[in-house]
Structure formats: C-alpha cells, structure tokens
Amino acid sequence: MTNSRKSNRRQFFNSAGTGAAASLAGFALGSLPCFAAQATLVAAKKQRPLRLAMASYSLRKFNLDDALKITATVGLEAICLKSMHLPLESSDEEIAAAVAKVKAAGIVLYGGGVITMQNEEQVERAFEYAKAAGMTRIIGVPAPNMLPLVNDKVQQYDIAVCIHNHGPGDATYPTPDVAYERIKNLDPRVGLCHDVGHTTRAGKDPAAITRQCADRILDVHLKDVTEPTKEGHATPCGRGVIDLPALIQTFVEINYPGYLSFEYEEDPDNPLPGLAESVGYIRGIMDMLA
Amino acid sequence: MTNSRKSNRRQFFNSAGTGAAASLAGFALGSLPCFAAQATLVAAKKQRPLRLAMASYSLRKFNLDDALKITATVGLEAICLKSMHLPLESSDEEIAAAVAKVKAAGIVLYGGGVITMQNEEQVERAFEYAKAAGMTRIIGVPAPNMLPLVNDKVQQYDIAVCIHNHGPGDATYPTPDVAYERIKNLDPRVGLCHDVGHTTRAGKDPAAITRQCADRILDVHLKDVTEPTKEGHATPCGRGVIDLPALIQTFVEINYPGYLSFEYEEDPDNPLPGLAESVGYIRGIMDMLA
C-alpha cells in the first residue's frame, strides 16, 4: 500500500436508495431488483478510493426515468448525461426538469456529453447547456480550431472540458496523449476524458497513457474490450483484454480526482447485467486496494 | 504473493458460450444480453485461482432451461441443482434428460442440494439421485443419527456429502465448526458446505472458520449479507458486511479444491442484476490476486 493510495481515500457516498427502483416493470428490464435501498445502508460504510458513475450513453435505449432507475440499481452515485437523456436544444425549463429528476433519484449530475463542438455556436451552446444544468464537466470533441475559444469559455464559466478520445477511427483524438499535446499549454480546466477502451483499441496501454496524461485527466470512460485492435468491442469488465487491476491502481496512484464513468456499449436493449457485472468487478478491485 | 496462492492457480474454464442466452425473452428476464459467447473467447484466457459456480436455489423462480441461460449469461462454469430444477423423486430418465440439458449448455453439473437426510430412505435416495446425475457432491443436512450411514454411503458410492450450515436458526449445524466436530473422525469425503452468509449471521468470522475447518470444506455457498446477526439478509457481494477480499484470499491460501457457488437469495423474481454484480465483484478480487 503506497502513501498515494491511502491519501486518495474518499467516502464512497452511495445515494442510490430512493426506493424508486423497486416498482419499475418496464421494457427489457423485467422487475428491477429492490436492493438499491439496502445498498445505501451498507455501501455508505465502505471507504473506496475512487468514485464510480454512469455514462448515460450506456442506457441510450431508455428514457431518463428508467436510466436513473438502472443507475440506482447498480448503486452508482453520479451520472453524465448524453443528449438522448437531455437534448442540447432543451429550454432552461426542460433542463431544470431533468436536473430535478436526477436530484430526486439521489444521483449527482456531474457532466454532459459526449458533445461535438465543431463551431462557435456549438461551443457556446455546450457551455450554456452545462451551466443551466449545473454540470462541472463537459465531455466534448472540440475541433482543434475551436480550442482557443474553449480555453476562453472554461475560464468564463469555470466549467471543465474533457476531450474524449475515440480510438483508431478518430483522426483528431485517437488517444489522450495526442489530445494532450494540443491542450498542454491551455488552462488546466481544458482536460481529457480518457476512454480506456478506445485507447486499448488503438493499441496503447491505458495505464501508461493515464500516467503520461495524469495532470489533465478530468473524466474517464471505463469499460473492457475484447481485443486490443480496432475490431475490439465492449464486454463486461473483467472479461476482456484490459488489465483493469493495473489500471485502477494507476488511477488511485495518480490521485485521480474525477469519476470513473461506466460506458457499456454492448447489449443496448438490456445493458443491466453487463453493467452490474462491470460495477461489481471494479468494486472488487477497489476493495482489494482498501 | 504466497506460494500457496500461486500453486493454486487453475485454468478458468468458461464454457458458457453456447449462444443460447441471446434468444431468451422470458418472464422477468427481458432479453438476456448476448455476451455469453464472447465471454468464452476472452475469459478462457484468464487464469483465476478459484472456480465459480451457481447454486440453483438462486434461480428458484425459473425453470431449468432459464436457470441454465442465466448461469451462462454470468459466465459460471458449473452448477449445483436444487430440487425445483431436478426433483429428488425424478426417474432415471428424467434425471438423464436434465443432465443432458446442463451438458448442452456447456455447464458442469457438480452437485445437488441442499438435500434433507432425516432417515435411511432419504439418505439412500440422495445417493441414488446423485449417482444417476453423475454428481460428485451432495450438499446435505443429515440428521446426526444418520451420520454413520452417510459415512458408509460416501465410501460405497465415492460421492462426497457436504453438510450445510444454516446459521443462528439452525440448532444442529449453525456454523461449519459445529458440524466439523461431528464428522472429524469420519471418512474425509464427509465434509462441509460452508455457507459464509449463515456463518456471518451467526456472528462468526467466515475466514477464521474457513481456516479452522479447511480440510473438510468441500463446497461453499458464497454471498454477502447486510448484518452479522440473524436479521442479516442477502445483498450483492461487496455491498454487505462480509470481508470478501479477506475471505477469498483465505480460500486461495488453503488451496480450496471445490467451487465457490453463488447462492443469491434476494430478488427471486429478478436475481440476474444482483448475481451479475456479485460474480463481477468476486472476479475483481481474484484478478487482484493473480
């Protein structure tokens, strides 16, 4: 146990126990199990070194209400909303209504995205949207020529932008180290969302990249993939090729300050079993580090 | 890393990939996700120190076909069938049909139970049933005055009997150490099924009891519970009070030869999310020991 790991301990605040999950009987969910309430009782006792969240793209076939119920069922404390759960063109009133739903579920709305920022209008809209929703982070893909504007906006709004890497098919930001070179002289709130699956699919070691870019990683898309090539696709954490024990230890050692957000892209019609297995797997690793 | 841990490494043989899970759309299951097949591809690469199985009581609201599909979905390699999935009074033909279904799902049928053995007829039936099904273990609750007969039968059939402890409400076998005192001079194939949840509910440390009874533990019911009292009930592994990292390390250190069988008693109508989270949690712990 290194000192850096110990100093990174945080209260694992599980606020999922609204009881809302027990009554759901919707499409492809069956009846959700009712352990969310008791999870609050017991999970709150545990000190874990990293905070876990949901990237709502995982739940893209569900509406916001059901997405929040699934998030609570797996006991995640926070969520980053993708546009199908909170459209970018929403009015302030619509945003306020969605924010109220997330809060009522006992979940922290920490970010939005992934949001494309190809022009000034998209950049400005992203910040207005995030501000209205009280988000601290925009997970985004700003075109390189938008980075000076993004740099101004993060200072104006005090909202971070986390550039998302999309792997071997992404000519601009395939891996975080490539994005890092473009932002290293900008405000520290211009950072990275490290998608560890896409880094692996690009043939790079996500733990090494995490160390290399440690000071700018402000969000993480956590997942496992079947192959370290562009053919690799999602699989529940622990079934794929990513050395997640080493990666989680790395996040602890760098005192990673943000959320590890599960983005589970497989089984969109019934993602709960794979998500639950993934969340359990990462908690098991964390409890070995405690 | 101790030598005993390393010497205990086994091939993690994941034989869940029959593809059967993908097409299920049944009661309370929604559409099962389709990662069982790819799990075979990738999980087979992993060396894990302990073998995981399903105690089919977890799936008591489902028929055998659906129980096998759920077992495959969470990637478990073996199963112990409770009587609702293979009635004790089954004919040899009925047993053969069930055995064929389990085999076709790529799953090992390693045991049956929990089976009550209150009289000679029940003891004899349990062994005939297990023999017909090719089981290597009977998980049972033999009355103390049946133990001499059980001792004869394990030698006659070369099938082990694992006495199941049922916690504070069980006057005969509340914890494995109590059962151990009754069997310690019998054939070594008269052993224990350590239900770590009931041991915890009885106020005892399941890791300490595992060490104390190490030479006779031949099966395990793995779970987590909410409280270390008789009021404690099931919760997904990692959400309760059992120190599962310490317990799993203990099973590795004693070179435990059997299966860790998930018995998840909560959410009988929709156990898959809690089971998946539990399986993931234990795999995460194991991968930290690898």
List its traits.
homodimer; 290 residues; alpha/beta; TIM Barrel; eight-stranded parallel beta barrel; two-stranded antiparallel sheet; 20% strand
Radius of gyration of chain A: 18 Å
Oligomeric form: homodimer
For the record, what CATH class of chain A applies? Alpha Beta
Looking at the overall shape, the CATH architecture of chain A is Alpha-Beta Barrel
Q: What is the number of independent domains of chain A? A: 1
Strand content of chain A: 15-25%
Low-confidence stretches of chain A: 1-30, 36-44
Distance between the termini of chain A: 9 Å
Question: Largest sheet of chain A, order of strands side by side?
Answer: 5-6-7-8-9-10-11-14
Give the fraction of residues assigned to helices of chain A. 25-40%
- Strand tally of chain A, please? 14
Derived from helix and strand composition plus strand pairing, the structural class of chain A reads alpha/beta
Mean of residue pLDDT of chain A? Answer: 88
H/E series of chain A, N to C?
A: HEEEHEEHEHEHEHEHEHHEEEHEH
Largest contact between chains = A-B, 51 and 52 residues
Give the overall silhouette of chain A.
Answer: globular
CATH topology annotation of chain A: TIM Barrel
Biggest sheet layout of chain A: 8 strands, parallel, barrel
The number of distinct helices of chain A, counting runs of at least 4 residues, comes to: 11
So, the CATH homologous superfamily of chain A?
Divalent-metal-dependent TIM barrel enzymes
